[in-house]
Amino acid sequence: MFAKPRIGLLGGSFNPAHEGHLHISLMALQRLGLDEVWWLVSPSNPLKEDRDLAPYDSRLDGARAMARHPRIRVSDFEAQAGTRYTIHTLRSLMRRFGGVRFVWIAGADILTQMPLWRDWEAIFRTVPIAIFDRPTYSLKALSGLAAQRFGRAYLQPRRAAKLAEQTPPAWTFIHGRRNPASATKLREGGA
């Protein structure tokens, strides 16, 4: 019997895609023992104004140019499926790819924002989650509502390679070399 593929999901606006996305994807492949990471480029972001987003096709093309790794795939799944919220995207992916073990991957800034997301607690109960250290966000993320609410589901980082096999809720926080890249800073003309 073959093992189920282990796929990391990195969702976002990719407005624009940057080295930080690549950095956590490569860390996820290594530390979580993933077969691939899929970048799910969102057509829109319910927490941002559409006028602040570059055109979808240019964000998708920018993500493809940045990904540049044979085990990172850039996907327009959300546009194809017509999903707007992460929970709906996850459920659609699980229906379509029933033989896959998905892990949601994100930077520490996302863990602080998750309580603002639609059905955020259901996201924790749907797939294991790996949060990656980011400059200035880690302490706030680890003391925030999401981390506290799901504290009992925390998996020690030394066991992160087993995260994909865990029954949700299960999450971990991966420390490592941080990448300071930020889409906001890039849009503002910074590094």
Strand line-up across the major sheet: 3-2-1-4-5-6
CATH superfamily, called what? HUPs
User: Could you give the distance between the termini?
Assistant: 47 Å
Shape designation: globular
Q: Tell me the domain tally.
A: 1
> Mind telling me the C-alpha Rg?
15 Å
State the CATH architecture. Answer: 3-Layer(aba) Sandwich
DSSP summary, beta strand count: 6
Characterize the largest beta sheet: strand count, sense, and whether it forms a barrel. 6 strands, parallel
Rounded average pLDDT: 91
Quaternary structure type? single chain
Q: How much of the sequence is in beta strands?
A: 15-25%
Instruction: Sketch the topology as an H/E string, one letter per element.
Output: EHEHEHHEHHEHHEH
- Detail the poorly predicted runs: none
Helix content: 25-40%
At CATH level 3, the topology is Rossmann fold
CATH class designation: Alpha Beta
List the helices and strands and how they pair.
Blueprint: E1 6-12, H1 19-31, E2 36-41, H2 56-67, E3 72-75, H3 77-81, H4 86-96, E4 101-107, H5 108-113, H6 120-126, E5 129-132, H7 138-142, H8 145-149, E6 171-174, H9 183-187
Parallel strand pairs: 1-2, 1-4, 2-3, 4-5, 5-6
Helix pairs in contact: 4-6
Can you walk through the features of this model?
It contains nine helices and six strands. Helix 4 (86-96) packs parallel to helix 6 (120-126). 36% of the residues lie in helices and 17% in strands. The protein has one domain: Rossmann fold (3-Layer(aba) Sandwich). It is globular, with a radius of gyration of 15 Å. A six-stranded parallel β-sheet has the order 3-2-1-4-5-6. It has 191 residues and is an alpha/beta fold.
